[in-house]
Design a protein that fits this description.
Elements: H1 7-15, E1 20-23, H2 28-34, E2 43-46, E3 56-61, E4 64-69, H3 93-107, E5 113-118, E6 121-127, H4 132-148, H5 152-155, H6 165-177, H7 182-189, H8 201-208, E7 214-218, H9 226-231, E8 236-241, H10 248-258, E9 261-264
Parallel strand pairs: 1-2, 7-8, 8-9
Antiparallel strand pairs: 3-4, 5-6, 5-7
Helix pairs in contact: 1-2
């Protein structure tokens, strides 16, 4: 967490599944709440103010030590000024915020990686894939699930009394995915007062067609337009990437076709 944890934040964190927290500090009220999490086994760490990790970082692999300059770049709105598509005015302050949030996130995820953001929060991350379009597909499925959780049929699921909060979360996700095994479906249906009608593929598509305003950031350039084609299925309106591919013109044209605005940052964010 990037700021001092207060009581309100601690109350939210207490309900969420996690093993620990690192933050610059905690109010007394917040600390008292967090100490009770996981039966007192929740790990609470405080960062050292003004800590300097050094310019060089190291990795040891089977007796070999590799070193490189630490990726200490601070991503800011200045990196989002080079809009290479025609819709330059579409990149307003809210869009720049999402571009920054997504880019900071993928700076710390395993390459290759892409991230989707909307309204100042991450809604899908795809990391550690050999193919960049596979990153888009992986993260896109998460965006799909996040958005469909707002579908009226999902919000209207009628659970039996006593079904735990996390079990309800899991049940909603499985309802959206819909690919139950016969045994799994029996156990899933047992959680409801009335067995829900399926959420059909057509209903999902119709709902997702209304999705828009999503930002995608990539830790390196998109080598082909296929990533843009797939991103268009998830409501992507804005793209941020380093640029520098021999296919930049093709990728830019794809963004124009879908009405997306794209920025080139000139900064790669590989993390291995």
């Amino acid at each position: 967490v990037s700021d001092i944890v207060d009581e309100a934040t601690a109350k939210i964190l207490k309900k969420e599944v996690s093993d620990g927290i690192i933050a610059p500090g905690y109010t007394d009220e917040a600390l008292a709440i967090l100490k009770t999490k996981k039966g007192g086994k929740f790990i609470i760490l405080e960062t050292t103010k003004d800590y300097d990790p050094g310019e060089i970082e190291y990795r040891e692999v089977y007796g070999m030590t590799f070193s490189q300059k630490r990726n200490d770049i601070v991503i800011s709105k200045d990196h989002m000024k080079n809009v290479v598509t025609s819709s330059k005015d579409a990149v307003d302050d809210a869009v720049v915020r999402d571009m920054i949030v997504a880019s900071i996130c993928i700076k710390y995820t395993q390459s290759n990686s892409v991230g989707f953001a909307k309204d100042g929060m991450m809604v899908g991350v795809g990391a550690g894939q050999q193919s960049r379009v596979d990153c888009v597909k992986l993260a896109g499925r998460k965006v799909n699930t996040w958005y469909l959780r707002q579908h009226p049929k999902v919000l209207g699921l009628s659970f039996k009394a006593g079904v735990k909060r996390q079990d309800r979360v899991n049940a909603r996700v499985r309802y959206i995915e819909g690919d139950f095994t016969p045994e799994e479906k029996i156990r899933w249906e047992a959680q409801f007062e009335t067995v829900p009608e399926p959420l059909t593929a057509e209903e999902k598509k119709q709902f997702m067609d209304a999705s828009s305003g999503v930002t995608i950031s990539s830790d390196a350039f998109f080598p082909f337009r296929d990533s843009i084609d797939h991103a268009s299925k998830y409501g992507v309106s804005y793209v941020v990437q380093p640029g520098g591919s021999v296919q930049d013109t093709q990728v830019t044209s794809a963004c124009e076709e879908y009405g997306m605005a794209m920025c080139f940052t000139g900064v790669r964010l590989f993390h291995h």
